[in-house]
Structures are given as structure tokens and as C-alpha cells.
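Quick one:
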Amino acid sequence: MSTAPNRHGHTHRLDLEDASIRDWDAVVVAVDPDRGIVLDRSAFYPGGGGQPPDEGVLLWGGVRTRIVGTTKGDDLYLVPHQDDPVPPAGTAVRGALDDERRTNLMRTHSGLHVLTGVVFRDFGALVTGGNMEPLTARMDFDLAEVPPDFRDRVAEAVNQEIREDRRITVDTLPREEAFAIPDIIRTATNLLPPDIEVVRIVDIVGLDTQADGGTHVASTAMIGRMEIVKMESKGRGFRRLRVRFS
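Output:
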């Protein structure tokens, strides 16, 4: 069943509307003892597309419940720390994200979009895999031929694009319109579920446009500097870049 891009089950997805939100008011809709807490409104990014879930707290009645992850299903379930009390259904709570973690994940995710945009533009290579943690990541590319100066050229080009202070915008389009955009999917395999009717588009203006469900900073200048820590060959023409941001 398709859903609006800013909802998941009973939860209104504040994280997709405004990535700058760090605290908000909500009401507990349900509690599942095995899966977690469902809110009517949440800015916790639940994880996906290589970006890990947010962490933070729920404050209620003078009590603090630490949130250590999420579980996706028919609803978004916030996973409480095993040692903390759980607010019952109907409780008014104040949600708050771990700001440093979220901000660093946003910088990292946007930086990886710059990286994939540069590698696709300059070398025509698609992404075959990736993973990120705050300020560190790996990205795999389908790249049979690697010039001797590939690593230096990529690092220089990525950091130049970051310095250009390009705007990063988020929009949604009907699936048919989104797929009319050339190269909107930058992975070698299209991972977008076939039942998604509205596609979220992240555009680094003048460089890169991709279908993407994660959170991002507002401009490339907010990413910082990227360093390629290591380049590895993974066989069959696949190349892995390990990067960090500062």
C-alpha cells in the first residue's frame, strides 16, 4: 500500500518536512512491548538508504526515556533503552534528537551525494553499495577502468563542489514524473519499492539530482571537507572509497 511521503503508519514524519527540527511535542499513539513506541509526530529518522537511525530522548512527566533506534513495520516504532520507563499510550511527550549525531549524519549523507555526483559526472560510474556513520563512510562504485590519479581527482573535485556552496533542495514528484528525470537513480540496482507513488528528490543544484529518502544539510558548504582515507578494489571492476569529513 502506498503512503504519502511524510507519513509512516500513524506517524507524521517531521524529519522529511524539515531536517532542522531537533525537538517537538507529540502524543504516544501506541506501545508494543516487543517493538517500541509509536508517536503521532516524530522527527526521528528511522534509518534507510545507508543512513543510520537517529537517537535521542522522550521527556514526559519529569521522566526521560532514551531512544536508541527504530523498527519499521506497519508503524514506526521508537526503541526505548532497556533500562528506561516507557510512556503509556495517550501520554504527551517532548521528543528531542541527539543534535550532534543527526547533524553529522546529515553532513555525511550530503557529502556522499556530492561524491556520487562527481564520480558519475566525471567517470560515468554508478553506486553498487555504501554505508555511513557520523562523519565517516564507504561508497562502492562500478568502475572497471581507474586512472592513476583517480583518488586525487575525485577528492579535489568533491571539495571544490563543497566550496561552491551549492544549495541542496528537497522536493517530491509523482513517480512517473520523477523517472522522467535522466539518471534519477544512481545505484546500479533500482532499490525504490514498486508501490511508491510519490518520489522524494534531493537536488544539489547544478551538480546532482537523486531519488533519496534521507536527511540533508541546506548547502554543500555545511558539509565541511572530505578526505579519501583509502581506495580498495573489490573485484570485477568494483572500487570502494573510504572517506571521512571534517
